[in-house]
Amino acid sequence: MADLADTGSLQVRSVSKLFGTFRAVNDISLDIQKGEFLTLLGPSGSGKTTLLMMIAGFLDISEGDIALDGSSIAQTPAEKRNFGMVFQGYALFPHMSVRDNIGYALSVRKRPAEEIRSRVDEMLELVQLQDFADRKPGQLSGGQQQRVALARALCFAPPVLLLDEPLGALDKKLRVEVQEQLKDIHRRVGTTFIYVTHDQEEALSMSDRIVIMRDGAIEQVGTPQELYERPVNQFTASFLGKSNFIQQNGKTCALRPEKIDLRKGEGHSEARMSGTVRSVTYFGSMQRVIVDASDGTEIEVDIDVWRNSEPLDVGDAVDLLWKDEAAVELQTG
Amino acid sequence: MHDKQFKKEMLTEGAHAYKAGRMDRRTFLALCGASGVAMNAVLAGDAQAAADHVVMWNWGGQSEECHGSAIGEAFTAKTGKGLKFDTSGPLEGKIKEMVDSGNVTADVADADLFNAVSLGPTGHLESIDYSVVSKEKTLPGYALEYGVSVILYGYAFVYDTEAYGDNPPQNWADFFDVEKYPGMRSLYKWANGSLEAALMADGVAGDALYPLDMDRALAKIKSIKDNSLYWGSGSEAHSMVVNGEVSLGMVWQNRGRNIENDTDGRYKLVNNQAMAMPGAYIVPAGNPAGAAAMEFIATAQEVPAQLALLDCLGMTPSNPEAFGQIPEDQQDYAITSAKNIDKIVYNDPDWWGKNGGDAVNAFLEAIS
Amino acid sequence: MHTLSRHIHPGWLIIAPLLVLVVALYLGPILNILWLSVTDPEPGFGNYAKLGESDALIRIVWTTVRICIITTVFSVTLGYSIAYAMVHCHQRQKNYMLTLLLVSFWISILVRTFSWLMLLGRKGLVNGTLENIGLIAEPIAFMRNELGVLIGMVHYMIPYAVLPLLVSMQSLDTRVMDASRNLGASGTQTFWRIYLPLTLPGLVASTLLVFILSLGFYVTPAVLGGGKVLMVAEYISVQLLVTLKWGTAAMLAAIMLAGVLAMLWVMSRFMKLSTVFGGAAR
């Protein structure tokens, strides 16, 4: 995949999409590095799929520009953009064999049969479907279909691969497995992946960078760790993982439940807050305690079970402790 | 049809039940009301409820009205029996089917005399009772064992006076002459009349047509095939002329007057060499009204009925007594009028009854 | 009885009377026709032998098949375009088109046939207009010939062609077409390699429906053909009603029936007919 070495960076410049007067995507700018695994994460209606469809060329851009390696592709039709895409539900060609599905992009480009054949074999190996080349998509499991879709989209060595909720149709256990495979394939092919999902775990485990979107706009961009550790607002903080919001020095701060230390009884010198236990829920690796704080707020605390052998009961008085850096000051509401 | 049959049976049953006291008057009235029949009409004939009227099987449209006024009224006055209609068209195949199925619902069929020749010997028709029906009140040769000609219609032609005004076509030879009279013509699709016209055009004398020389006739028909359209019904023949699709149109002579009127005289009827077709009344075997059918036919033979049919339908009388009484304004159109009777030729129902099926097929095969 | 009921679902017993009735009412007349074709006017295969003896019969059958094929090709092609337009236009326009399509089902075939005469006849609207503006000196012979029959039949058949195609196109997953474009296929490539193959069951259903219905056409050829275009249905009717050659009629009917069944059989060799008639694809 040497031909990919110099291509695959994508520039999104002040892009908007209007449906009538409704702004589905509002003034988004984004620089995507070549070879990057970038996830667009957001609830439904956040505009993430609309943005992806504009990048793919299925939707026109209302305002702004999109460029590949610096040159605008806004006027390039979808079939000329050479972007691979894995569709929600896969959109495989039901009347074609797995081999013909995967080789389709090369076949419509009128490449020699021998080239198509060897390239398809390569892709079949990549997604480990060598034994299924002659099956029809209808004869495959969901996970296998997903891999065919991936192989089909990668077969013509696109500089950019767009993935629209590709794991949405799989059950949870399979999803984790496929996440690993996807990540592995991304490493091996070096293609820029733009991945749309509403599943935060998926986003955290696979992405180089995550773009959190809400109401057509970007809330925050960063590596998974940056986003988790330093959310800039309440939306990001609560969308990625759980978060308590407390007032500290007159500012709103986000405080992750696992970063709070809980002590039974009152009067600890470093206690930042005290309260009574309202409920305790056991999750195996940890237990979640909800505390009615004395200032009237409700605080969630995740504690390791093995480290707190002392049993907690509803109504117990507790003190809450945390380190200064655990509370992240938010920039906006 | 089945519906009517069902109602009739139901009411006849009802009439019996009511008379025998098995059904109260109120129920019977309701039954009659539901069927849209006056109670008297059902009760009048008691067990003969079904036979207190004669069912005429014709082609509907104007015929229904005209047969009613021209024959039905006189028939009712004479016998006290009513007249009803089945307007589904008594084609030979339908008559055969009706009789074969054993469910005969018609008494008198307005058909062709050659139907009497083909359907009579196979047991599908009642023979005509010539003690009631008169052999004298029709043309000689047109009173057959299983049918009698009551009216005549004919195959004549109309021409476009604007196209041929100076030198109008006179006869079938002109009709078939596409050199002298260019333009489209129309012929009857089911062979009848068309074959005879072709032979006359080819030089066969009008009284020496039968047995028809099929090969010669078809060769003549084919010779103008590119200039011909073929019609299957009177209305189609009419519209082909009125819509200007043809310059020369073979038509049923009784339509001639209407065509002249509808085209404001642009098309004119020629009755020279018109082929007189004996329209006949025939009686399906086992007809419900029995002998009353014969009285109905006899009524239709009477001069007033004959003249009324001419007036109403344009059908020409076949009763020689009526020939002299054809009114002045019908002289040009009625083929047995004093003006036309010497110019016409006569169809042979016997030949058609025996050879019609093959002739129709040969004709269809030649024109398609 | 016990072993029997183990093999036969009790539900069959409940519908058995109706099933027997339906089978009898369907098969009875068909068997009667077949019987008639070998017994009237005399027992034997004389009626079928006529096919070999008579050029005319062969010609009528050939005319029928030829006209039906041409009608089917045009109806299905035009129907395909109409169905495609309906599926891809706005809902509002689609409703209009669907209404027009359904309305045409309610108009009697006679009315539709005679309308063509008024429109395209020698003195019809089109010829009149063309003559008036001096484009033609002689009227164009649209009607009362084979062309007229084809125009009338195609017009009548298009709605029948559209409906199965519409169903087939509406059930397509449009993302599959997006996927094709995304993989670099042009519109033409996407149509021939994806859209057409995926609508093939609808296309076959539409073709079968139109062809089989066309075989039975009677009024349109009789009127618009000017008497010169003789198709089997009209010929059968003449044999039944006028010439009383019921054996010939039954023979032709049997031939048509066999032809249709043979066609279905050939089709079934290439694809599952159940998918054509809306069954599951697998």
UniProtKB/TrEMBL annotation, chain A:
The keyword Protein biosynthesis does not apply. It comes from Ruegeria atlantica. SMART domains: AAA. Keywords: ATP-binding, Hydrolase, Nucleotide-binding, Transport. One of its GO terms (biological process) is putrescine transport. Its EC number is 3.6.3.31. GO terms for cellular component: ATP-binding cassette (ABC) transporter complex. Residues 10-240 form the ABC transporter domain. The keyword ATP-binding applies. This is Spermidine/putrescine import ATP-binding protein PotA. One of its GO terms (molecular function) is ATP binding. InterPro entries: AAA+_ATPase, ABC_SmlMolc_Importer, ABC_transporter-like_ATP-bd, ABC_transporter-like_CS, Mo/tungstate-bd_C_term_dom, P-loop_NTPase, Transp-assoc_OB_typ2. Gene3D superfamilies: P-loop containing nucleotide triphosphate hydrolases.
Automatic annotation (TrEMBL), chain B:
Its main location: periplasm. It holds the Pfam family SBP_bac_8. GO terms for cellular component: outer membrane-bounded periplasmic space. It comes from the Bacteria. SUPFAM superfamilies: Periplasmic binding protein-like II. The keyword Transport applies. InterPro entries: SBP, TAT_signal. Keywords: Periplasm, Signal, Transport. It is found in: Periplasm. The keyword Transport applies. GO terms for biological process: thiamine transport. GO terms for molecular function: thiamine binding; thiamine pyrophosphate binding. Belongs to the bacterial solute-binding protein 1 family. This is Spermidine/putrescine-binding periplasmic protein.
From TrEMBL, chain C:
GO terms for biological process: transmembrane transport. One of its GO terms (cellular component) is plasma membrane. Keywords: Cell membrane, Membrane, Transmembrane, Transmembrane helix, Transport. SUPFAM superfamilies: MetI-like. InterPro entries: MetI-like, MetI-like_sf. Residues 61-267 form the ABC transmembrane type-1 domain. CDD domains: TM_PBP2. The keyword Cell membrane applies. It is a multi-pass membrane protein. It is found in: Cell membrane. It comes from the Bacteria. The chain crosses the membrane at residues 12-36, 56-84, 96-119, 147-167, 244-266. Belongs to the binding-protein-dependent transport system permease family. CysTW subfamily. This is Spermidine/putrescine transport system permease protein PotB.
